[in-house]
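One-letter codes give the sequence; the integers encode the fold. A sample entry reads:
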Amino acid sequence: MQKFYIHKDDQQQGPFSIDELQDLKITRDTLIWFEGTDNWKKAIEIEELKEIFNSIPPPIQSKKVVIPPPLVDKKFKEKTKPNIDHNPIKKNTTLIIVVIIVIVVGGLGIYFYSDQQAKQAEIHREIEEQRKLLELQNAKIQEQADIEAARLTEEQKQKRALDAAQRQADLENLKYEYDQAIINLRAAKISLEEIQEFQLLRSPAEKEQEVQAELEIIRSWENEIDRLQKQIDKY
């Protein structure tokens, strides 16, 4: 709330509120001062006080000389003087403080930004190391898989070679058995011829029995030759 000082009876009085001024029964010509004005003014000239005089008739004009307002006491001036500091040193100090604050805040911002960048770089570095480690592990796994595949391939190759050798050995054995069966068949046929030619010390029945026995041998060798031939053809 605005406070006012009055000059009355050659004395400076106040401060007062508007209601208090009304109780003091000031006049339109009462000199008033309040904070923000450069000099004393008549009450009627102050906008805030005009309502006090709306219901009061103006005074009768006379030749009375208006006493000019007294000089404001120095202490009063210092007391009521607006608090404006024109000290350049203080201004420079304030400016320096502001600059320091800006520098500190900027430095903190740069520090936190750099720290964040460093953390992100560390995270990227760890991710890159993990990626390289994973690549090495995958390479080792692939290398082991290649070694295992090569081993299996070699085993299969060796097995195929053994199988082929075994098949070849089996074929050679079959051929050998076939050749032996041919020889035995020829021998049986020769024996049959000999049995049919010689009749000494044998009866016709004995001869016929020997012939039949030899024919049975010949048929068995023919069957064996046929079986062996079929097996050889499978190879």
